[in-house]
Specification:
Blueprint: E1 11-15, H1 17-20, H2 25-38, E2 42-46, H3 53-56, E3 65-67, E4 78-79, E5 82-83, H4 85-93, E6 96-98, H5 108-116, H6 140-150, H7 154-161, H8 163-169, E7 184-191, E8 195-198, E9 204-207, E10 210-218, E11 221-224
Parallel strand pairs: 1-2, 2-3, 3-6
Antiparallel strand pairs: 4-5, 7-10, 8-9, 10-11
Helix pairs in contact: 5-6, 7-8
């Protein structure tokens, strides 16, 4: 018997006004029904209203994921400079939050303010695709550096790109030891150098510390690695 959950890890809906074009919250409820019937988590892309985040979040349950939530668009996670109640309640229920940088979904000011208030991502993803490959995303290492600059600890950044997404995807994460397993990892180095980082709204921050990939180890093969972004 083949379990489709071995191949399909979740149900995703792009709950953003510019995409739904009038469908609104009803399509989110439909997606949640599919999620419940398949016993798979619902991943919700959030952005421009409608629907409002205040309506989406109460629909979600433990293990569901909200992505792109550090966007700088109207009516996001803040109301009058405070994180909305629905976000706090969702976290308490076990709803997970993912950075999902993307071409238009990561704002330094939102991320820094949220992290300073203790609202941190469980997953750090890039949403890398053809329209952001040459900026503002570039690669995972650059997104990791941005999250370090936004206020996460190095340990939190590492967890956000390793054990946390591995847990969500239910894949081997090396948490039970390394002995006897095929080597499969990337070597990074923290480099002290002045660097320019841009968010999805072209806001600039200057940092003096970046995370740089150096090698990919795959079995006995060692491959040199480097970031596509040079900090210009």
């Amino acid at each position: 018997k083949i379990l489709f959950s071995n191949y399909i890890k979740g149900i995703k809906i792009r709950a953003s006004g510019v995409i739904l074009r009038g469908w609104g919250f009803e399509i989110v409820k439909l997606a949640k029904k599919v999620s419940n019937e398949t016993k798979l988590p619902l991943i919700v892309h959030v952005g421009e209203p409608l629907p409002l985040l205040e309506d989406i979040l109460p629909c979600l349950s433990k293990g569901d994921i909200v992505t792109h939530y550090y966007h700088g668009k109207r009516w996001g996670i803040f109301d009058d400079n405070q994180i909305i109640t629905e976000v706090k309640e969702a976290v308490e229920r076990g709803v997970l939050f993912d950075v999902g940088h993307g071409a238009a979904s990561f704002n330094f000011n939102v991320a820094r303010k949220a992290i300073a208030k203790g609202f941190k991502p469980f997953i750090i993803s890039t949403d890398l695709h053809g329209q952001n490959l040459n900026g503002p995303v570039w690669d995972l290492a650059t997104t990791m550096s941005k999250m370090l600059a936004a206020g996460l600890s190095l340990q939190e950044v590492i967890a956000g790109v390793t054990i946390n997404p591995a847990e969500v995807l239910d894949i081997e994460s090396y948490q039970k030891g390394l002995s006897g397993k095929k080597a499969r990892f990337t070597v990074f180095k923290i480099e002290n150098k002045r660097f320019k980082l841009y968010d999805s709204n072209n806001n600039l921050i200057k940092v003096d510390k970046v995370i740089s990939p150096k090698f990919v180890i795959n079995g006995t093969e060692i491959i040199k690695a480097s970031s596509r972004y040079k900090g210009n």
